[in-house]
Amino acid sequence: MKSCLIVLCALLSFNLALAADNEKESSFILLFESTDNGIKIEGVKGCEFTELNFTLGDGEITEIDMYGMLNNSHAERVSDDQSSFRIAIERREGVIYLKGLRGTNFLELSFSCPVGSKQLIDQNGMLSIPAGLDTELAMDGDGYPHGSAIPSKFSIELIWEDSSDNVDLWVCKGDTCVHGQPNNRKHSDIGVWYPDLGETTFIGLFTRSSLRSNIEAVRQIDERIPGTFDIYGYFKESDIPASNVDVKVLVYSISDDGAKTEDFLANLTLGEKKKKLATVELLPNGDFNLTKY
Question: Per CATH, is 149-196+212-293 categorized as 3.40.50?
Answer without folding.
Answer: no
